Prior knowledge:
Elements: H1 3-13, E1 17-19, E2 25-26, E3 32-33, E4 35-37, H2 46-63, E5 69-73, H3 78-88, E6 92-95, E7 108-109, E8 117-125, H4 129-140, E9 144-153, H5 157-165, E10 170-175, H6 176-185, H7 193-202
Parallel strand pairs: 5-6, 5-8, 8-9, 9-10
Antiparallel strand pairs: 1-4, 2-3, 6-7
Amino acid sequence: MKREEVIARDLLKIKAVFFRPEEPFTWASGIKSPVYCDNRLTLSDTAVRADVENGLAEMIRENYPEAEVLMGTSTAGIAHAAITGYLMDLPMGYVRSGAKDHGRQNQIEGKLLPGQKVVVVEDLISTGGSVLEVVEVLRNAGAEVLGIASIFTYGMEKGLKRLSDAKVKNVSLTNFDVIAKAAAEEGYIRPEDVERLIRFRNNPSDESWIGGEK
């Protein structure tokens, strides 16, 4: 079984991915979504955690062999950057959502030298906004950001365009399409719901998928 399929089934098994096509979730951005992904739950299952962290390490070695430092996003990417950094014998740190208002007022925690080659570790990519803010902070600090390694990506057009415009590469352990297919095969959703999920992914602003065909 391919790595993306293993991770997809792992996320389904521990209920890190929730499907509610009939009663959608509302994201902070206001987008109504039939799917909610909570990858923090991977930390609580030792077998799934091993698959995820070993998968991240392998993926970073394959795609970013020059990596010198891993930087987690705050807060979801911090633990994954720490564990993967341990497996790869690489230093790690993380980037706060904003600079501290006390002490040294750091936004980047951990040692980072100008010119170091960095991989950003993120739990999931949707529209790409938050992770690109992290990339910008690191670039402004003089780091050479090789790209992002994430657990899951929705593959939304808006997110793909933002990453492309910022010249940032992302590689993910699994993706929306693979999880939707696996969910149908394992009975989490009906086979006919897959097309609705893909319609959401292709155009989140078109809510015609809610409640079935209209």
